[in-house]
Specification:
about 140 residues, mainly alpha, Arc Repressor Mutant, subunit A, 3-stranded antiparallel β-sheet, 7 helices, 3 strands
């Protein structure tokens, strides 16, 4: 299949758009000091604090070792903290810190601005978001 023909497939177009969006967001989040994965974790914990590592991994579609390594980094950066489950001390729950939530909001504003720029060039994204979330 030729390159031009291959670029017409929705999978390739979505993959290319994803790579470009992630690259741009990564650049814009760098001054805040968090990665896209950290921003995603903090957003998940903002909405539902006290999640287990397994629950976070499932929510973010990441594997458990990746989430464990990410949590180690986020705890050392004072973005999250671990706490033993109240009835099962073997289970560890993850909570966002105030510092982590502040950085989340800063990063979220950056992501919203980037999305607004995209919307300005493409038109309303609501329908596209809805359809993509249904996939």
């Amino acid at each position: 299949m030729t390159k031009a023909k291959n670029q017409k497939h929705i999978a390739n177009l979505l993959a290319t758009a994803h790579r470009r969006m992630v690259a741009q967001l990564s650049v814009e989040l760098k001054p805040v000091g968090i990665s896209i994965d950290m921003w995603s974790v903090l957003g998940t914990l903002k909405d539902k604090p006290g999640q287990s590592m397994t629950s976070l991994a499932d929510s973010l579609s990441l594997n458990l070792p990746t989430v464990t390594k990410l949590m180690d980094r986020m705890v050392s950066d004072n973005l999250t903290y671990r706490k033993s489950h109240h009835s099962d001390r073997r289970r560890v729950l993850i909570f966002p810190t105030e510092h982590g939530l502040n950085l989340f909001h800063e990063a979220d504003n950056i992501a919203n601005n980037l999305e607004q720029k995209l919307e300005n060039s493409l038109g309303k994204l609501d329908q596209l978001k809805k359809k993509l979330s249904e996939l």
